[in-house]
Design goal:
Length: 294
């Protein structure tokens, strides 16, 4: 009987270990599936937000510009297609693929630069309006409404959207997070952080925003000083980059045989592609160095 007892006990322990192993392995698989599903959902949301932001850059923050910009895009495409057909002679599929990639990158960079320029021009006025409104005893929502009404352009439209969404009771975090995605600058991040803290806990917002205004003014002075110090190097890079293009145009009229060889002959086009590739690569390095220095 004692042997049977130990056998039953051992069988129970083994059964328990086996069941526990299956349970934890199944739980691990379920968690992995949940993690992978969450990762996929986050990826889809990121792509969606990037597409929305790219469209925002494409229309410059105003949907009325959509038709005009589409017409301009097609016009530029046909002009470059004709130049490729006459001179560079890239394969059609290769040309269309390169055009799409470069067009997407161009709109993205142009939109970022335009947004930054608009923000730097109009944001000090936002600080002044917020200071004036809070000094006169107006509430935070009223101050944001003043910014939307008094500031022209797309930054004013942005504050109108913020004021409208906060007025109907939307979560402040999601409202300011959406706005920060369109204006991802450290000054705006500090600004919305101040507003969120004031909405949650209150406090002396006027004094903090005044300090932020002084910090932004000092930062702009430093940026202007950096640009002045690097202006000569940037101009030199632009002149050096223009030399091959100017030489190529001169060769069309002064050395037509060599020009036809580079354009029409397959071996000559290899030289043309090498020159274009090395030019783009060199200008990219110069641009990267200039970005690092400023």
């Amino acid at each position: 009987m004692s042997i049977l007892y130990y056998l039953i006990l051992a069988f129970g322990i083994l059964l328990f270990i086996y069941t526990a192993t299956i349970f934890f392995s199944a739980r691990k698989k379920i968690n992995q599936r949940n993690i992978s599903f969450k990762t996929f959902i986050n990826f889809i949301q990121t792509v969606k937000s990037k597409l929305v932001l790219w469209k925002y850059y494409f229309v410059s923050g105003n949907n009325k510009n959509l038709t005009r910009n589409i017409l301009i895009t097609f016009s530029v495409f046909f002009i470059i297609y004709y130049l490729n057909y006459e001179f560079i002679k890239l394969d059609r599929l290769v040309f269309v693929g390169l055009f799409l990639i470069l067009f997407i990158l161009f709109i993205w960079k142009k939109g970022q630069r335009h947004n930054r320029k608009v923000f730097e021009e109009m944001f000090p006025e936002v600080i002044q309006i917020m200071n004036s409104a809070t000094s006169s005893g107006a509430g935070l929502l009223q101050a944001l409404g003043h910014c939307g009404r008094d500031i022209p352009g797309q930054l004013g439209d942005e504050f109108k959207i913020i004021h409208k969404r906060l007025s109907i009771g939307e979560d402040a975090y999601s409202v300011f997070n959406d706005s920060y995605n369109r204006y991802p600058y450290k000054e705006f991040y500090f600004f919305i952080t101040i507003i969120r803290i004031n909405l949650d806990k209150g406090g002396q917002m006027r004094e903090v925003i005044s300090r932020l205004g002084r910090v932004i003014a000092d930062s702009k002075k430093m940026e202007k000083k950096k640009k002045a110090m690097t202006s000569e190097a940037r101009m030199s890079a632009m002149i050096v980059g223009a030399f091959p293009v100017i030489f190529f145009i001169i060769m069309k009229f002064t050395m037509p045989d060599n020009f036809d060889y580079v354009i029409d002959d397959p071996n000559g086009r290899i030289i043309l592609y090498y020159v274009l590739g090395s030019e783009i690569f060199g200008m990219s390095i110069i641009w990267w160095l200039m970005r690092k220095s400023t």
